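hiii, so i know i said id send this last week but things got crazy w the move. better late than never?? heres the sequnce for the chain we talked about at the cafe, plus the structure i predicted for it. fair warning i was half asleep when i ran it
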Amino acid sequence: MRRLILTAALLGACTPDILVAPTGKGAPDDEPDTGLPLDQPDIEVTPDVLRFGKLPPGCTSEALEVTVKNVGTADLDVTDLRLAGARAGAYTLVKAPKRVLAPDQSMVVTLTFEADEIRPYNAAWLEVASNDPDEPVSKVDLSAAGDEFAYAEELFFQENQANVDVLFSIDQSGSMGGEIQDLANAFDVFITAFVNLGLDYRIAVATADPDANCASFAGPYISNTTADPVAEFNTQATMSRPCGTEAAFAASRASLTSAEGQAFLRQDASLAVIGVSDEEEQSTLFSPQQYAQWLTNLKGGDPTRVSFNGLVGPQSGNIIAGGCPVSSGSDADPAPRYHNAIRLTGGVWGNLCDFDVGPFLQQTSFVAAGLEFRFPLANIPSTANPNDYTVTVDGVEVPWDGFDGWTYDSSDNAIEFHGTSLPNPGAEIVVVYPYDAVCGP
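okay and structure toks below
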């Protein structure tokens, strides 16, 4: 996956320790000599299993990659790369460089698969020989099969951030009273996910109005040390403020660039902004593209560490004039600017008109934490029939379900997880699906 796991260190002031050798006994003994050099190479080969899926006989797969990296402190000499096992003949080393890797250097080995009959070809593996003293031969299992039809088998891993900063930018106009209360009532879903993931979090609440008096935080930011984060969020989110402009892009910029915003943001934390409004976004100085780039720039240009998420109206109009009805009796307007920012940053859209905003908050909490709910596929499936797919998380099959399972989104060519089926940190996700393989010249 594309997200990094970051850990926080807590530094405190202290006086230096001074070591004094006891009188008459000389200096402290050196560490015992183990006979091993202090600097050693250390090989890391990923993935553990290379999955080619299923292909008709005579059809050559796309090349898949194995990465060999030296994570040690001395040069790693990769002396040999070889295929082994009873079915090794079905695999080909396309790119197999043998070289010396300095510490932290890596190289890529590519392989292809071609079946000559319909059968499994799992009795094969790649061996990587090196001068690693603890692991002179590393092994990558090869998984594939010959079949009447082509099936891709893709492996994903779920990772998460350790630190996350979240800003709620809430439209405080009069028509939003019922929706703000719904948001506050469902906030326990959001914060429970953070607690269960063990995140170091900060959550701030501001309005969607960029006026200086409105862009300020509604109260102190909420964190792991807040006694009752749910009660504090309820107080801040429902606070009455005369701020009715609907411009979450400009408002969040004003909030985050203020003195309190700079104290709130942490360099080593990911950032999620959550806009909540029944109107279209009205910032005059920001296009969605410019806003997405501004967010990315806050994190050194790394788009994987930011997201904009919106509890707003639909992408465009529908049979209900203007959009969809909200509790005040008015409509939540179509919000294409919000939707563009969500798409550009990999965020989550929640329909403001939905009775239950809990699922939106749960998905948003995962995205804010650096977890993925959307997994893009490498090939275009040949069918949308869910019965032709197999999706497992840690070996357990997940049902096709738009509430507590997986669905396929053809617009993003991705598998999406929903509700309780969202993969936890460290989970292994395997997706098997049919596709049209191109065989022959």
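btw The CA atoms of residues 84 and 113 lie 14 Å apart. thought thatd interest u
miss u guys!!
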